[in-house]
Request: fold
Amino acid sequence: MRGPLSQLALWLALSFLTLFPIYWLFVISVTPAVDLFSTPSILIENPIWTNYAEIFHDETLRRYMLNSVIISTGNAVLVTVLAFFACYALSRFDIGGKENIFFWTITNRMAPAAVFLLPLFLLFTKVFAIGDWKLYDTHLGMILLYCTFNLPFAIWTLRPTIDGIPKELDEAATVDGASTWTVIRHVVLPLAAPGLAVTLILTWVFAWNEFLLAATLTSFNARTITTGLSEYVTTTGTEWGKMASIAIITLIPALVIFSVVQRHIVAGLTFGAVKE
Amino acid sequence: MRSNKTGWLMLAPTLAILGTFGILPFIYVVYVAFHRWNPFGANPDMVYNGAKNFRRLVFDNEFLTAVLYTLEFAVFAVGSEVILGYFLAQLLMRNFPGKAFFRTIHTLPLIVAPIVVGSVWRLMTTPSIGIIPFYLNNIFGYDMNMGRDPGTAFLMTVIMDIWHWTPLVTLTLLAALLALPRDPFEQAEIDGANRRQIFWHITLPMIKPAILATVFIRMMDALRTVDEVWMLTGGGPGDATRYVGLHIWKVVFPKTDYGYGSAISIIVLYLTLMMCWVLYVALVAPRPKKEAL
Reply:
């Protein structure tokens, strides 16, 4: 595993394993339903594109897709910003009981979701309702709600990164007369960039894929594509082709966001920054 | 140190959001757990019945086997993911042609919604028509039948989970590795340490917090897996893959036994919490001591 070529070979092999189920998803999306349940073949014969054509003309699905992008992006950005400040506070300030607070945040992610749907439904339709306005079926509601599982995740993945940035760097800057805000912006933020990028990507993914809560707490205005997708999986039978083609299309916005954010997953800034 | 007011101010929004959407529903569920409540049953009223739900749970074999299977599933899946993910993260620290491209490919499984993951793997593994049993039979003459063999079904849920979630481990560990200062490594190389020594004495202690955070998160997610396994095996054959999340689901929805479902959830939450707390105290908590010096 020394040479770059053998590494390349290794990654090609790994990519095959990673991509095969996704390739298969694509195969399903272009195979007529009757052929799905005959002898499988690894190559695509006579692809049909009707599933894709139907999706492109389906305005409801387009709406769901847009909702998903708004909710996931809104939630991922909010969560990453809040988690960054929370971690900075936990790491740099002498807050009483901070280790307990830190542990408590993660307990919000542990609960099995099924029974929490009802109280959340009541919260969204009865408690947070002013006049005609309800938190139910709104982008804001989903963005805030997804914090319950994403915020703990973000805090737990960012904490080691922020803790790992030497305190001496902040202190040196503070002695030089920098305000807390300046320290954060010019010292901590650049060093935490890879961690922040990873957190943003992963929280985005969790929000994008969430199904149970969106299925219960949205109906149309804020319904997400993952939930729309599940409408093709019913007890009487699954429309495999439709479901697979929607799933393939949902990979595109995710890939766009990934390639934009992934550029920040590089070291470089930490090199030498710590040297006195 | 600087004024704590700023610190609390930075924490406040997090605490407010988690308090509202995390604690309020939790209180409600605790309340329901002490009641007999079947909203769609013959007697739809909520009746207080003390700790009966909890007493029932202790002797509920279905629940106890579900817990056992879930733990087995979580340990195998998360264990493999962490080892594999660390290995891949280390590989991504090196330079080779097309690195960014392969990294993106490697993150693709994360974007596929769990319900879709379950569906695809199901189509790939269905006996006689799925691609995996088909080729296993043609090449090795092995008859893979997930609907009959509990062991295979269990293994497939683990493999599916590894396929889906290893990239998450890779990414979080990659971020941790990238954030490490270089000096200790350079120093160790100057001192003539070999790779194994560097791993055990420098890398591992330094990224231990990140590894633990990842293990915790993957562990608690594995313990409440529902969608993927539901689509892949439906919990079967028998109860071989009916993990706790699915079990609760079956109690709450088809049986609408809301009170009992709440009690199970509280206990599962409590067990998860205790498990993580013990690990946390044993492995992470020594950290604050450094500040006392």
Summary: Strands of chain A lie at 129-130, 133-134, 233-234, 237-238. Confidence is low (pLDDT under 50) at residues 268-276 of chain A.
